[in-house]
From TrEMBL:
Originating organism: Streptomyces chumphonensis
InterPro entries reported for this sequence: DUF742, WH-like_DNA-bd_sf, WH_DNA-bd_sf
Protein name in UniProt: DUF742 domain-containing protein
Organism placement in taxonomy: Bacteria, Bacillati, Actinomycetota, Actinomycetes, Kitasatosporales
UniProt-annotated stretches for the region Disordered: 1-26
Length: 122
């Protein structure tokens, strides 16, 4: 034995352990582009049933972040993060802002016409 540590290639905790075997949340599934923000600046103290992953999510959500961004910060699949976010929504620790529906998004062609109109006046 050389005394060198082997580099781990798989996560120490499997996703099904983090979600306690759940594949979905009790509340409706959050799309990846849903924006999330913590309700309080500090997570609740004491043994409140929060897992370390819940606390990490609350730490990252001091500003608006999407479900996909939170998954990237945690290094977990979005499906796992959706389950954990569902818990936090149910407990009232985060609020969500649904993605803007396609019908309400600004038409890019109209923006280009406005830009070209402004450029022609300069």
């Amino acid at each position: 034995m050389t005394g060198q540590r082997e580099e781990r290639t798989t996560p120490a905790v499997r996703p099904y352990v983090i979600t306690r075997g759940r594949s979905g949340a009790a509340s409706p599934e959050l799309p990846w582009e849903t924006l999330v923000v913590a309700v309080a600046a500090d997570p609740p103290a004491g043994p409140s049933g929060l897992q370390p992953e819940h606390r990490r999510i609350l730490g990252h959500c001091q500003g608006l972040l999407s479900v996909a961004e939170i998954a990237a910060h945690l290094g977990q699949p979005p499906s796992v993060v959706q389950v954990l976010l569902g818990d936090l929504v149910d407990w009232g620790l985060i609020t969500t802002r649904p993605p803007v529906p396609a019908a309400e998004r600004t038409d890019v062609t109209m923006l280009r016409k406005v830009l070209h109109g402004l450029e022609s006046r300069l």
